[in-house]
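Model the whole thing, not chain by chain.
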Amino acid sequence: MARSVNPAQAAVMTGSSLARQKLMDKWAGVLFVLPALIFFMVFTAYPIVYGLFLSLFKINTFNIDDRTFVGLDNFSKVLVSDDFHTALLNTAVFSFFVVTIQTVLSLLLAVAVNQKIRGKTFFRTAFFFPSISSSVVISIIFLWVFNQNGLLNYGLSMFGIHGPTWVDDPKTALPSIMGLNIWTTSGTMMILYLAALQDIPAHLYEAASVDGATPVQRFFRITLPLLTPTTFFVVTLGLIGTFQVFDQAFVISNGSGGPEKSTLTAVFYIYQQAFKESNHMGIAAAGSVVLLAIIMVVTVLQKFLFKTDQEY
Amino acid sequence: MSTIKGLRRVSWLAVFSLLVAMLLVACGDATNTAGPAAGGSTATTAAAGGAAMTTAAGGAAMTTAAGGAAMTTAAAGAAMTTAAGGAAMTTAAAGAAMTPNTTVSGNVRISTATSSPEEDAIVDQQLANFAKAYPNIKVQREVIASDYDTKIKTLIAGGNAPDIFYVDSLIAPDYINGKVLEPLNSYADKFKVNLGDFYPNLIKAFTGPDNMAYGLPKDHNTLVMFYNKEMFQKAGITSVPTTIDELKAALTKLKGTMPAGTAPLAADPDLARVLPWVYEYNGGIVAPDGKSSLASGDGFKKGLDFYYGLRKDGLSKKASELGADWAGDALIKEKAAVAFEGGWLIPPLNKTPTKDKVGIAPLPKGDVQATLDFTVAYVMSAKAKDKDATFALLSFLTSESQQRLLSDIGLALPSRSALTDGFVQKFPERKALVDSTTFAKPWQFGPGFGGFADKINPELQSLFSGSKPEDQVIKNIDGLVKGQLQ
């Protein structure tokens, strides 16, 4: 129980006052989670249930109460839609590369700034900084970086490379967004890793050193295994985040998902159905349900993959 | 020891905050420079807006992201000096002519897009004038900064529609079909507003199948040819091309004289830029009766052949390939000698030295002369409470005296034919924009086609990038049109 009771005080408490105390604690607990619970119910649980409900209807764009029940019709429309397939493929490619690279990168960054190096606080802050900036602002800055005459191509031109029109070329548009996404989120993941790294007891390393383990061995035999729960968390967060990528793709492609649908992500598809098409709100809701199912399946699969039973 | 450590920490903090400050300043710069390119829309939407021009219908289509920049009046940023003078003059005139009307009363909520500080100021001015003219009507103004159409749709769906809002020609049929707009004819009779004073093709864009008018156009913009006179001269082009063949010849001449990293023409794969040429070859994309596709027709192919042919021949490049946000931006940056844009290009252009080098001419003629007309109307929500008061404001905003405030600073062309002469007198160099009104076709295809350009453009993009052959692209577009018609 969170409430600390002075042992001397506890000794003089009668049985009934102790019971009352316990009840009070219970209510205090409820009271403490109540704001979060209300917030969750109103902004998460209710929309999810309502979304499920809406996915079974054809809905008038201009009047959400004007709807006709169509059963699973919306789902069949979503599942055969070429655009949805494109969007899922784009999202999968995006997720795979971003999650892989950002997980490795953030781990390396965390290990680096966990060393006793000069100015590590600066580096920690600097690496984390992109995470606290608005993704829309960062996307707009990157639009300029990715411009034909932008910073990136200027850098490349110093090596004699003629860079492409990054965000207006179907081959490079999605990788451009991946790059900016990795840059923004790696900092957050680094903080998570950093916290976990500092939780690893120093005596394990000392013991390993005494046994003659090299730094590389110590990293792979001690650090990495003990970080598994964090890695699971980082990968899960990364997957959920990347499956829901929208704002960066929206800004970079200027609301079109182009060029040639190369930046059309699953959430982007849902947005287009909901707001750009007439009477497709139900299809958008069905798309969200499908996406929810995919994210859930992937997360559960992952849980098996990262089965952890280490205790320390 | 610990003080030294503390000092060190403080100095790191100082260095870091300096970096942050520098970054913030850099961001500020980025958005600021984006501003003019985007047609003056503000802050975060700015950069998006700039590019929106390329994908959107340029000025008018509010369907894309940057609602702000996408309004016809989008452009904004107008020449401030004329703005102030013009506005002051007309306000005085307008104020003097009016006797307050106290018989109409009520509350009106109006939702406007904000594309520029200049336009914002004009709307404020108009509302202030209205408050004087109708002292018993209380007006509440709500500004939607970006993605205007999406937000309006959401407000309507949630039963919280503003009484007056903007609708552009492309999406108007969806709104009319959705029965969310109030027909205005009876109010026009009551308030003695003559719908015939507006350009008929503009009123027609907001007329429903029941022949009722559902919106009063606030302004419009046509697609014309902007060209760099200095570059023309350098290439030895003595007369402005008036036919497609002359245009091709001129662009070919330009190609030889222009430096690397530039192109004679900046042209993006965008339906709103391809369609004028299709119309010039007597083609179309949706039949006028809205029942069949014309994309497989001869005219569509000829128009696309011409537009894409310029690219194949190395005469045109995409704006992005020229390091510009949109074709107009390429012209401003002197990366291209020609761009097909509307009046929204003028305000950002006027902020640069390029303005003195640029001429405006109608689109060169194909088999017939054609172009596109983008227009936006003020409409009344069917659920407006005080409908008389709402119409009073709606008609006031589109009245001659109040429209003059807008057209005087050159944001867009007036939608009332009576204002045209004054506009041309004031801006003689913009005569081509006005003249094009007579042969322009509205940027509109019928109900269900609101997000249509967004569907066609990926096909045009694949044509431009070379990933799909032309006949495949035409077949796909035909399929998309047919799918939409069902």
